[in-house]
Design a protein that fits this description.
single chain; 98 residues; mainly alpha; 0% strand; elongated
């Protein structure tokens, strides 16, 4: 629920504005409402994606996902970074080897 409103100045390509205006007309909304809805939906998807990635990393670190499964979930390059981090974090300290 929004408690306050902030006015912003925004520059958009003409074609995007035209499409936004057409959608607003078709949905009996104004341009601002269409842009707010689109931005809200985008942010929701990004948040969901980030949460799923975090869950995938946690599951890999807990041994519930394989490296290959992690790579599918978050991409091979990101998975490689997690794998390297895991080996660094979970290495036994030198003193425990003695």
């Amino acid at each position: 629920m929004m408690t306050g409103l902030t006015k912003i100045d925004l520059r958009l390509p003409d074609e995007l504005v035209k499409k936004t205006d057409i959608l607003a007309k078709l949905e009996y909304k104004n341009r601002t409402d269409v842009i707010k809805s689109a931005l809200s939906e985008y942010l929701r998807r990004v948040e969901t994606t980030m949460q799923l990635r975090e869950k995938a990393v946690e599951s890999y670190l807990d041994g519930k996902l394989t490296y290959n499964e992690l790579a599918v979930a978050i991409g091979r390059q990101n998975a490689e970074s997690v794998k390297v981090s895991k080996t660094q974090v979970y290495k036994k300290p030198f003193s425990s080897i003695l």
